[in-house]
Structure formats: C-alpha cells, structure tokens
Amino acid sequence: MYNLIFLTDLTGPNLDPYVRLNEAQLFHAWEPQPGLFIAESPKVIERAIRAGYQPASLLVEDKALKRDLTDLGREMAANHTKGLNQTPIYVVNSELLQQLSGYNLLRGALAAMHRVERPSLPNFLATMPTEQPRIAVLENVVNPTNIGAIFRSAAALGIDGIIVTSDSADPLYRRASRVAMGTVFQVPWTYVDAKIWRTNGVRLLQQFGYQTAAMALRHNTVNIDDPRLKMAHKLAIILGSEGPGLIENTIMQSDFTIKIPMAPGVDSLNVAAASALAFWELGKQKIK
C-alpha cells in the first residue's frame, strides 16, 4: 500500500522542496545535518536509491503513477530502503506540473532526497583502489552542466573518484545530476574546503602517494600521452575553472602540467570536453 496524497494545488509546505526552495536553501535545509536535493526522473532516482540515498518524498504525475511507482518500488525493495509505503507520494495532474520550473525537461517522477555526509579527504582516498587509482580534482568548476558532464565521462572512462572543491557547483544540483544521467551517484566523490585546497591541496594528495597532473599551458607542459603519466602508480588529474583555469599555486605544486595537442589557432577546450579526453587517455588501461 502506497502513501499516496492527491493534491489539487501546490501551496502546501510539504511541497516547498519542489516549488519554493532554491538549490542553496535545500542544501542548508537541516543544518547542521545534511540537507536535501531534488532528483529528476525515475532513472536518476533509481540510481540515487541504489547508491544508498533515502527519499524524503516523491512528486508524481497522476497519469504516470503506475509506471513510475512500479519501477521505483522495485528498486527500493531491492536496496532495503524504508519503502514507498512509508514515503509521502504527492500526486498531481499535468496542469499543476506545468507550474514547476523546468517542467518541459522533466521525465516523470521527482524526489526530494536526503543528502549524506561526504567523507573526509583522508577517508575518501583510503577507499580508492590499490592498483593504479585514477582520480579527478575539480577546482572552482562553477557550471552545473560541466560538473554533470565531467561525472558522466568519469563513470564511463575509468576514473575511480572525484574531489570537488567547495567553491565548485554542487554535483547534486538538479541540472548536474540530470546531465550526468545519475552517475553522480555512481562515481565516489567528496568535497575539499576551497581554502584548504588553495593553500595545501596538492601537497595533501602527494602525501597520500598521488602524482598530480594539472591541466594547464606552461613552458614545461607535457602532452597528455606522456608515458610517465601512464606509469604513475597513483594519479590525480586536476581541472580548473571554466574561465581563468587553475590557480597558480595549484600549477606550481603539481608534479606535471599537461596539455591536449590541438590544431593551430585553438589553445583550449571546454573543461567538460577536456576532461573526457584526459580521462580516456589516462584511465583507458582500466577499461576492459
């Protein structure tokens, strides 16, 4: 038996996460405990549940109710969540859904999901594989679309984990998780405080045995297919902000600066496109 709640308007406070709270407000909703985020579409919700996230509630269109609940109920049962019978499921018609921002992009159900505590950097690195781990660091990458695209490439191309500086866009923002097709729940990741990263982040990685490769153009830049990169036992690929790129301190502290060779007249790629090429070249030995 589902906990179905049929609504004729969107005014109730229980719908605030879907209607009235922005991303930042959801992030800070239950401080000091982790807040909420919105997962869009059954596929993204399923992947979040599979990764251990618990839904606080769901918002479902009436005409898609049976389809969406069949798939989601099966996923929740398989992953030992509290079950849909205990989760409020708000059911609305298509006319009400059209009042929601981004309605034309939606693909079925929405879920307000509970966030989880992210591990500390040492604990995160301790979970990485022992055989040639390849991780990415996203420094001040502020566009959620780029974040989502980077996660999707990381999932597909053998990257074991991602470290996101706290001044970057949140990987659980709706646009990021949608672009990532839910792979933000598949690739292990954590935050590092931006102030700590800017002063000592690269050295922290080096203390854990990682060689660091900053994607930047400098006089000593090496090509992305340099054999030393492939031979590194542990490698961290560092990608910078969409405009200015990596900060100088990151570049100076890194073991390598690396570049993607390009045709004359072009000196750089969008960070998401650059990440896909870097992940393919530096992680492909892990793809079977």
Automatic annotation (TrEMBL):
Pfam families cross-referenced by the UniProt entry: SpoU_methylase
Record-linked InterPro entries: Alpha/beta_knot_MTases, Ribosomal_eL30-like_sf, rRNA_Methyltransferase, SpoU_MeTrfase, tRNA_m1G_MTases_N
The tRNA/rRNA methyltransferase SpoU type domain, residue ranges: 135-279
Keyword Methyltransferase applies: yes
GO terms classed as biological process: methylation; RNA processing
Keywords recorded for this protein, A-Z: Methyltransferase, Transferase
Highest taxon listed in the record's lineage: Bacteria
Cross-referenced Gene3D superfamilies: 3.30.1330.30, 3.40.1280.10
Protein name listed in UniProt: RNA methyltransferase
